[in-house]
Design brief:
It is a single chain. The chain has 465 residues and is of the alpha/beta class.
Length: 465
């Protein structure tokens, strides 16, 4: 008997993790970090609800931390199997995990100094660089569309998801005795309007379907309207003399933003002359993107021609800010520039410093270009309910103008999710994951109107295939 247990990204967006068990094999689909409020992130230190040493393999949908960030802890706790991933995810996984452990160790060192002075118990990191290095030795890349036997009776194939470079829809074929079942996991399904990547692949057959539902309760604004809003926000900021601060995930969102800024520049809609990319990880990720332009779509012939030459050829005035000293120098700029920095939800990274120095300025503009999970600083800024926010230990007034650009999301919206799922020729058993409660309930209602029962699993729930 084959079973599937929902362990993460269930009733919430982060912590993607699902345990597949056959008579002889145990596989994890993703092993991600929980992100958001302090209470949510406490789950990362919890013991896994299974023995990591008994996991034979991990199948990774893509390299975002909410899908891969607990892999080094899995290894630390006993995992010795293989991590299967796409070819483009291979370098991105190393980039993100090494950055994550660096930030984690730095933050814990800072926190423990305070705890030591207060006589409190010191914190232990989830994992260290040695754990990351050991985990990376377990990677095994598989090309898109190539069905590969990974264990006895189990084969996997990856299909383009259009979310970030290397992101995949996972298709698992499970054979036990005379029975064969197909499990399809959407991973994070991309927005077909993404300017760089190809549209999500269409699959037509499955017995069980796990479908993400991040934007299951809404449709994105029309793309043309969103680009106009971006143009207007940049013009307004130039007129007021303030800086433009854009929180962005280093992988995916940053590269999309560079594309759109370059597009506006060519149309005369980018008044700012200097655009700072203040994120060492985003800079390295951009270089990986530039090395994989064969995976880009060809929707924009002008960009297709320039892309192999690199981002500076596309966006003039782009400045890489790599060192801490360079980042601090950017903080001293009081107006007239665009600053792109991570993290995308403002919970860590250099973006917090830029918000601390700009959020209180009435002439500054904050552009939110992606999903903000509950409990994050980014969500608090979007909600706009607080006049002051605590950032890096300081009370900062919320005076800057905030713009939310929905259509730039790298996730499919409600209509796009429904459209993608409609291609399945028979309705598989459907489970909605990777979404907050309101999103999953709304998407469930939409499916029920079409006569398709969509289940919303609970954490720890186990089903049979």
């Amino acid at each position: 008997m084959t079973t599937l247990t929902f362990l993460g990204a269930t009733g919430q967006v982060t912590g993607s993790c699902y345990l597949l068990e056959t008579k002889h094999q145990r596989i994890l689909l993703d092993c991600g970090l929980f992100q958001g409020s302090k209470e949510t992130e406490k789950q990362n230190a919890d013991d896994f609800p299974f023995n990591p040493a008994e996991i034979d393999a991990v199948v990774l949908s893509h390299a975002h931390l909410d899908h891969c960030g607990r892999l080094p802890k899995l290894l630390k706790d006993g995992f010795k199997g293989v991590v299967y991933l796409t070819e483009a995810s291979f370098p991105l996984l190393e980039l993100l995990l090494k950055d994550a452990v660096h930030i984690q160790l730095r933050d814990i060192e800072w926190e423990n100094k305070k705890r030591e002075r207060a006589g409190k118990k010191l914190l232990e990191p989830l994992y260290d660089l040695e754990d990351v290095e050991a985990l990376l030795k377990l990677r095994k890349p598989i090309a898109y569309g190539k069905e590969t036997k990974i264990l006895k009776g189990i084969s996997v194939s990856f299909h383009e998801a259009g979310h970030i470079l290397g992101s995949s829809i996972v298709r698992l074929q499970i054979k036990e005795g005379k029975e064969s079942k197909t499990l399809v996991f959407s991973g994070d399904l991309g927005n077909p309007l993404s300017p760089l990547l190809r549209d999500p692949a269409i699959l037509t057959e499955a017995d069980v379907l796990l479908l993400e539902s991040t934007y299951g309760d809404r449709d994105h604004k029309p793309l043309v309207d969103t680009v106009d809003e971006l143009r207007d926000a940049l013009a307004e900021a130039a007129h007021s003399g303030g800086n433009v601060i854009i929180p962005a995930f280093a992988v995916g969102r940053t590269q999309d933003l560079i594309y759109w800024l370059g597009k506006l520049q060519r149309q005369g809609g980018l008044p700012q002359q200097q655009i700072y990319l203040d994120s060492p990880m985003a800079i390295k990720a951009s270089e990986i993107y530039a090395d994989n332009t064969d995976l880009f779509n060809i929707d924009d012939p002008e960009f297709t021609k320039v892309a192999p030459q690199g981002w500076h050829a596309w966006l003039h005035g782009l400045i890489y800010s790599e060192t801490a000293e360079e980042s601090m120098a950017v903080n001293r700029i009081v107006g007239g520039v665009i600053i792109i920095a991570g993290s995308g939800m403002c919970n860590g990274g250099r973006i917090r410093h830029h918000l601390k120095y700009n959020l209180w300025r009435r002439n500054a503009h904050i552009i939110i270009a992606g999903f903000q999970a509950e409990g994050t600083l980014g969500r608090a800024i979007v909600d706009g309910k607080k006049k002051y926010l605590k950032i890096l230990g300081a009370e900062v007034a919320v005076a800057a103008k905030v713009h939310t650009l929905g259509a730039l999301s790298a996730h499919a919206d409600q209509s796009q999710l429904l459209q993608w799922a409609s291609h399945f020729e028979t309705k598989p058993r459907l489970y909605l994951v990777h979404g907050e409660k309101s999103a999953t309930l709304s998407l469930q209602t939409c499916f029920q109107r079409t006569g398709w029962n969509a289940n919303i699993p609970k954490v720890g729930e186990k089903i049979t295939l």
